[in-house]
Design brief:
Order of helices and strands: HH
Number of domains: 1
Structural class: mainly alpha
Helix content: over 70%
Largest sheet: none
Number of helices: 2
Strand content: under 5%
Number of strands: 0
């Protein structure tokens, strides 16, 4: 459980990095962020 939670937070930090890197494609990055979070929760 602890490992999955750690992976979840690392995914969020990765998502934040992607948002900064692809600021011009904000909607596209948000879409993939939601997809990743969906699979992380499920």
């Amino acid at each position: 459980m602890r490992g999955s939670r750690l992976n979840y937070f690392s995914l969020i930090s990765l998502y934040s990095t992607c948002l900064r890197a692809f600021g011009s494609n904000f909607m596209n990055s948000s879409f993939w962020g939601v997809v990743f979070l969906f699979f992380a929760v499920v």
